[in-house]
Amino acid sequence: MYLKHRETTDIILKNFYAVYKELGHGFLERVYQNAMFFALQEADLKVEAQRRIKVFFRGKEVGDYFADLIVNDVVIIELKAAVALNPEHEMQLVNYLKATEIEVGLLLNFGKEPEFERKVWVNNKKKLKS
Q1: Which Pfam families match (predicted)?
Q2: N or C: which end of the chain has fewer CB within 10 A?
């Protein structure tokens, strides 16, 4: 089965579970973001934290988001430290994907149990800034 950017997402998920195993649950999202940033850098991936994502409507900027992590310019990571993932978390990641040329996103939750969701939003479905 073909998964877009699978090699990168496999490395991310391996590091997600390693960070979870080492830190456990209960910290703020920022702690997990910093830990993931360093772990992914150590895995020789290009990682950017808190990249601004502009949202456009009819060619006009109408808002912005900040992605927790962007890896190799091809995967957006949204981190949570919640009891469980919910549809609002998933929509947040989908909106990040819709507002960028990045097609793959991972939602990683450092809750009582580690959990993740993989989302894909292909560019031909997007209405990006003209």
Answers
A1: PDDEXK_3
A2: N
Name every residue whose Cβ is closer than 8 Å to that of residue 81 and which is 6 or more positions away in sequence.
25, 26, 27, 28, 29, 32, 109, 110, 111
Question: What pLDDT was estimated at residue 2?
Answer: 77
Q: Is the pLDDT of residue 85 over 60?
A: yes
Residue 58 lies inside a defined structural domain of this protein: yes
- 130 pLDDT above the threshold of 60: no
Q: Report which residue type is found at 120.
A: V
Residue 7 pLDDT more than 80? yes
With 0-12 / 13-18 / 19 or more C-beta atoms within 10 angstroms meaning exposed / middle / buried, residue 110 is: buried
Crossing angle for the helix pair 6-23 and 29-42, to the nearest 10 degrees: 130
Take residue 59 and report the two structure tokens written for it: 């060619």
pLDDT at 1 over 90: no
Q: Is 130 inside any structural domain?
A: no
- What is residue 6's predicted lDDT score, i.e. its pLDDT? 95
Of 119, 105, 101, residue with least CA distance to 71 = 105
Contact assessment for residue 105 and residue 4, using Cβ atoms and an 8 Å cutoff: no
Count of structural domains, the chain: 1
pTM for this entry: 0.90
